[in-house]
Design goal:
The complex is a heterodimer of chains A (272) and B (283). Chain A is mainly alpha-helical. Chain A has twelve helices and no strands. Chain A has helices spanning 10-37, 54-61, 63-96, 102-110, 117-130, 137-162, 165-173, 178-207, 210-215, 223-233, 238-260, 263-266. The longest helix of chain A is centred in the first third of the chain and has 34 residues, at 63-96. By secondary structure, chain B is mainly alpha-helical. Helices cover 75% and strands 2% of the residues of chain B. Chain B contains 13 helices and two strands, in the order H-E-E-H-H-H-H-H-H-H-H-H-H-H-H. Chain B has helices at 7-32, 49-53, 57-90, 94-105, 111-123, 128-135, 149-173, 177-185, 190-201, 203-219, 222-228, 235-244, 249-282; strands at residues 34-36, 43-46. Chain B has a two-stranded antiparallel sheet. The chains are: A mainly alpha (272), B mainly alpha (283). Chains A and B meet through helix 1, helix 3, helix 4, helix 5 and helix 6 of A and helix 1, helix 3, helix 4, helix 5 and helix 6 of B.
């Protein structure tokens, strides 16, 4: 904070105060949920009278959460990897070539950004009923691939734009086949974009709720769906404890991503 | 250079996925014009009854309510996110910048359920706000914030904040600082400089953020369902209830379809209305 000039404009102070209050609003739920998680009593009351760790123990031992966690990992691993493969291929094609129906295809694949998740969930549910395949893992994974693809596409496309095309040209002028150029020059140079795209897709997929609620069944229930079912039935701080674990893990992942890749670059919010 | 090596390999998986999505949307359209057979998951013959039912005051009201909720959320989010995005672009201290970024972006990755649950504890009758206000002696009995539209809006603003901050920051970071310096050197004060230079130049980001916040709010389900508690009906909660409580999938499909048309209509309208404003930022 020493970088502020000595002579502070009064407006600047107002601005600092304003941003502090807004960030307070953003962080308030996380703070409240953390205090609640350590509450010893089973009723949600504030502030807690006594403290304990028992809700953490319960949230880690609760069967539906454990199963939801593993189901979520399976779905996330498949969905984000498939989305990465499909999205990278399509981003390369978008960047390099012109082909028929290019913009139609692009528009269709980016449309999940504005199509409500419940619409996509309901559509896939009806489709699966018509094809008599039923709900379960394949359908959940398909829904997630559709939903996270726009983010992967964006991340890979931005890295492609920042890639120096002369490196590819140099390789092919030295006699490398298009396949060799792709696998030894283009893809290695894209690794930061690919990793951040995958990470983004994985986090979004692991947390996706609405569409999953429509297309999952008991066997393929993911963690957010299990949490939703819990909050409808019980009102004890178990979910608060789980939320704290969630918040801590997510903030750690983001801090690591920020250290290694620069979050600003991933989200394309850095001034160049 | 008409050679396009690997084009088929690169594009065909994406085509398959796009076909899957299109088929799902077609399935909704097809179900929306079928009759509901009570007690059965099969659908009956062709009918437009679902769409005439949509014109009943209850559903029209729900649509109106949803649009209002989305507009309120997007507006409040914009007002709160703008100063944060501005600080993110203008703060020079690296550690402070990282802190603002992580603090404002983390909620994006927490998922709707965790965030909604946190707000239930904040807003509940025994929750944080009521406990604080009561212990300070400001109120005697708890304020009802759960199951109200204002409660839902507060939580939804929190849900859409991160994406708005990202889009506004992207818009603000592309502004050439020399324009502001020029305005200042010509004698404009900080407020005038902001209102006549920075704000107009950031309009593309504002438009993008506002539309995205609108679409996200329309898509939100857990927040209106849990915090609204059945008292705040939105298109998303009604679709879920129709599908999973009464198994009336044809009507749920027609409601989704109408909702989709409405989303696109509102977004197109917004784009049109904001075109002159957006053009300000392109100069």
């Amino acid at each position: 904070m020493s970088s502020f000039p000595m002579r502070k404009h009064p407006l600047k102070l107002v601005g600092i105060l304003l941003v502090t209050v807004i960030l307070g609003f953003v962080m308030l739920p996380a703070v409240v949920v953390t205090i609640t998680a350590f509450n010893d009593k089973a009723i949600l009351a504030f502030p807690p009278q006594s403290y304990s760790l028992r809700w953490f123990a319960r949230s880690l031992a609760y069967d539906d959460f454990r199963k939801g966690f593993w189901n979520g990992l399976i779905v996330t691993a498949w969905a984000s990897t498939l989305a990465l493969a499909i999205g990278t291929g399509f981003a390369l094609a978008l960047h390099r070539y012109s082909f028929s129906l290019k913009s139609t295809l692009e528009g269709l694949l980016l449309s999940p950004l504005v199509i409500p998740h419940f619409t996509i969930g309901l559509g896939l549910l009806i489709l699966s009923a018509q094809l008599t395949v039923g709900r379960g893992f394949p359908l959940v994974i398909l829904a997630h691939v559709i939903l996270v693809l726009p983010f992967v596409l964006r991340s890979v496309f931005i890295s492609l734009q920042n890639l120096d095309g002369r490196l590819e040209m140099a390789a092919s002028s030295l006699g490398a086949s298009p396949g060799r150029v792709l696998f030894t020059v283009t893809l290695p140079l894209l690794v930061p974009g690919l990793v951040s795209g995958w990470l983004f897709a994985a986090i979004l997929s692991f947390n996706e709720f609405t569409a999953t609620l429509f297309v999952s069944n008991q066997a393929a229930q993911t963690l957010p769906v299990a949490m939703y079912n819990y909050v409808r039935e019980y009102a004890d701080p178990t979910l608060a404890a789980l939320s704290v674990i969630y918040i801590v893990v997510t903030a750690l992942l983001l801090t690591l991503a920020n250290l290694f890749f620069g979050l600003g670059k991933i989200l394309n919010v850095d001034a160049h | 250079m008409t050679q396009r090596p690997f084009l088929g390999w690169l594009v065909s998986p994406a085509v398959l996925l796009a076909l899957g999505l299109a088929a799902a949307m077609a399935a909704i359209l097809q179900y929306s014009v079928r009759a509901y057979v009570p007690g059965s998951l099969d659908v009956g013959g062709l009918t437009f009854e679902n769409f005439t039912t949509l014109l009943r005051p209850f559903y029209l009201w729900a649509f109106w309510n949803t649009i209002l909720l989305c507009l309120m959320t997007a507006t409040f989010t914009l007002i709160l996110a703008y100063p944060v995005a501005y600080a993110l672009v203008r703060v020079n201290n690296k550690a402070l910048k990282s802190f603002i970024l992580i603090a404002s972006i983390t909620p994006l990755f927490l998922g709707e359920v965790v965030r909604t649950y946190s707000w239930m504890i904040v807003l509940g009758n025994n929750g944080f706000i009521n406990s604080v206000l009561m212990s300070l002696g400001i109120i005697d009995s708890p304020l009802q914030m759960m199951f109200t539209t204002s409660g839902v809006v507060a939580a939804l603003v929190h849900v859409t904040m991160p994406i708005m901050v990202i889009m506004l920051t992207a818009g603000l970071s592309h502004i050439d600082r020399n324009y502001e310096k020029a305005a200042e050197s010509l004698g404009a004060g900080p407020i005038r400089c902001f209102m006549t230079v920075t704000l107009p130049l950031s309009m593309p980001g504002v438009v993008a953020g506002f539309s995205t916040a609108f679409a996200w709010t329309f898509s939100a389900f857990a927040t209106p369902q849990l915090i609204g508690g059945g008292k705040v009906n939105t298109v998303s909660t009604l679709v879920y209830q129709l599908g999973f409580a009464s198994f009336n999938f044809p009507f749920a499909a027609s409601l989704s379809f109408a909702g989709l048309v409405m989303t696109f209509a509102v977004l197109a309208l917004m784009k049109r209305a904001m075109r002159p404003i957006e053009r300000l930022g392109e100069q």
